[in-house]
Amino acid sequence: MPALSVPSAIAALHRGGVVAYPTEAVWGLGCDPFDEAAVTRLLALKQREVAKGLILIAGALDAFASLLDWDALPTDRREAVFATWPGPHTWIVPAGGRIPHWITGMHDGVAVRISAHPLVASLCDAFGGPLVSTSANRAGDPPPRRLCDIEPSLLDALDGWIEGDTGALSAPTEIRDARSGSVLRGA
Q: What is the pTM of this model?
């Protein structure tokens, strides 16, 4: 399958598609977080349980304005989160009532990131909101740093991929709890 332009990828996402794209460290899979069928398909491709929850990415903080419960965090914790964005920092933030259960899984928070990767930021901005972002691998397999590292059968099952390079990170982004600052997944 050929590479998609950003406009073609956006059209695929709006049709319920799943696309691959480079992120700060690894190749990711994305879809519309509010399209349950698209998320269910993405989870099936990854062989991942919905209970684990998924990361949402955006190009700007305002994409999360009505989705997260920022008031549930003390001012100093909100400021700690905001100080790291845009950048390769993923935070678990209290979910607002609009985040569907197929995104939060068994959690009351949602993992979110404002990406500084230019392709990711432009993709989210063109989409008009946040996207699901999860590594482009089957559960338990190593995340791919290059397009050629994505398992061929997984790549063939996608609606396409966007050409580009991953960022300088050597491992997926660190995940921290916004309430406490504690590290849940190291970088």
A: 0.94
